[in-house]
Design a protein that fits this description.
The chain has 74 residues and is α+β, with helices and mostly antiparallel strands. It has one domain (3-73): SH3 type barrels (Roll), CATH 2.30.30. The chain is built from 2 helices and 6 strands. The protein has helices at 24-32, 63-66; strands spanning 3-4, 13-19, 40-45, 50-54, 57-61, 69-73. A 6-stranded antiparallel beta sheet has the order 1-6-2-3-4-5. The protein is globular. It starts with a strand and ends with a strand.
Amino acid sequence: MTMTLDCMRAGQWAEVIELRSSDPARLDRLSAYGLVPGSTVQMEQLDPAIIFRVGETEISIDREVASEIVVRPM
């Protein structure tokens, strides 16, 4: 079962499956944070901003970007 990052619950872990953005700059920025297919993320919070962890890095993104990141819950 897959879902997008914005559908995760706080505390939930997932593996990144796909980044669906067609914006090369956005893809470069996300990969610079370590957010690439195969990476593991942990959701920290969903409101007011989406904050999650990739390794030791805490990342905050808006819902539009989060809706383009496909994950598989662990």
